[in-house]
Records
---
Amino acid sequence: MTRFLPDEAATTAFGRQLLDAIPGDLAGWTLLLTGELGAGKSTLARAFIKAAGHTGAVPSPTYTLVEPYSLPRGNIYHVDLYRVSSEDELRYLGWNELDDGCRIVEWPDRAPGLVAQADLAIHLAYEGEGRRVELTPLSERAGKLAAALDAVGGSCNL
Ligand SMILES: Nc1ncnc2c1ncn2[C@@H]1O[C@H](COP(=O)(O)OP(=O)(O)OP(=O)(O)O)[C@@H](O)[C@H]1O
Ligand SMILES: [Mg+2]
């Protein structure tokens, strides 16, 4: 499914809808966020984390690689692989121990093997003054989630 997001508020609303579409515990979900610099990946991740109940700041994980959040819906790990150059480095950031929560990953292209263990690829692209988000389900449960989001629609569902 794809949806046009005319402004930042639409990206934020979409991040909230995404969180709401995940049933029950967030544990074990892996969401990949792709798109060029400035496409809105962090905006979407921030909205997702706040929708799960986080009230403080959402710092960029560019240097720390992982920012953990312990929230009522479960743990969320905001991961940014921009500075990672090889798949081996995933071990150093303790990737395998992050499966007790939802991993939302910016720049997953740095570790191409992640696609095999992910649920959902979320791609953001520039379109005019706004952005277009495209969801590609990579697991059966993500297929249901994408269908549910499609059914909910949005103010700008095209
Ligand atoms: N749908 C939208 N339409 C227009 N602008 C948007 C939209 N969504 C987010 N933005 C704006 O895009 C800018 C960049 O957003 P953001 O930092 O989330 O991008 P990013 O993909 O994380 O970039 P980077 O790769 O540099 O980390 C912000 O100023 C944000 O307000
Ligand atoms: Mg970012």
Note: The chain is about 25% helix and 30% strand.
---
Amino acid sequence: MKPVARETVLITGASSGLGLELARCFAADGSGLILVARNTAALEKLAEELRRLHEIPVQVITADLSLKESPQYVFEQAGRAGQVVDVVVNNAGFGLHGAFAELPLARQLEIVQVNVSALVALTGLFLPGMMERRRGGVFNVGSVAGFLPGPGMAVYFASKAFVQSFSEALHEELRGTGISVFNLCPGATETNFSQVARGHRKSERPVKRMSAPEVVAAGYRAFRSGKCFKVTGAVNTVLTQLPRLLPRAAVRRAVGRFNQ
Ligand SMILES: NC(=O)c1ccc[n+]([C@@H]2O[C@H](COP(=O)([O-])OP(=O)(O)OC[C@H]3O[C@@H](n4cnc5c(N)ncnc54)[C@H](OP(=O)(O)O)[C@@H]3O)[C@@H](O)[C@H]2O)c1
């Protein structure tokens, strides 16, 4: 018999880290999945695991979201089998450590394309269907970085500030429509993020990180209960409050020192 799911959830960046854990979490709840990233082998491996464990339909779409045309391609591939996407999880993202003037501009523009433009495009493409059905969800993955200026990772922090602002605004615009918009704001988490951001150079500073399952479990609960956003972890919650507690100059210097 063909597996039937309670809803279909499209997750970008599902090949590792938080996206992979989010896929496991939605699957355990009986959702069918569409997994998107560049690493097809990792997506297929996860799809196989989740089909076997939960008897849910799982589709894999290979796409590079740093390319402008990819969100439209993902939208078309997802709709191929008459599939209705109920929830879009905009999780794919990356950052780069270093001074803006010293990092390659093309790579920094890719951060904007993946973290910001693709997120807006996928939300805009899937939202009209949700509006028609008067139900659905947009689950974004922002960051504690979205609350702070980030010297040493300037474009990444700014991209997450966009995600925070955009998510909160959409949450408000769509209140009462049956569509929930949510932003998960993790701090340092054990994933491949740091290796990618440092070009696979090891950080000299030992940083305490939350585990990906821990972050995702808290985010998933908050999303299902209709929250607007969730900062995970007590220390991270304090970090998001720094701009209220300290002069802005002190905050940006502290973050700059931390990012060095
Ligand atoms: N880990 C942290 O400390 C932390 C903290 C706060 C927020 N976040 C956010 O959490 C999200 C997930 O990151 P993670 O921590 O799980 O890191 P990760 O393990 O490096 O995962 C990043 C995911 O994004 C995908 N991705 C990256 N570039 C892509 C592209 N051009 N096209 C399509 N997919 C792409 C990767 O897939 P492929 O490589 O297969 O394409 C991968 O699945 C990001 O938005 C990140 O900013 C992370």
Note: The pocket of NAP is lined by residues 12-19, 37-39, 64-66, 91-94, 114, 141, 143, 186, 188-189, 191-193, 196 (CB under 6 Å).
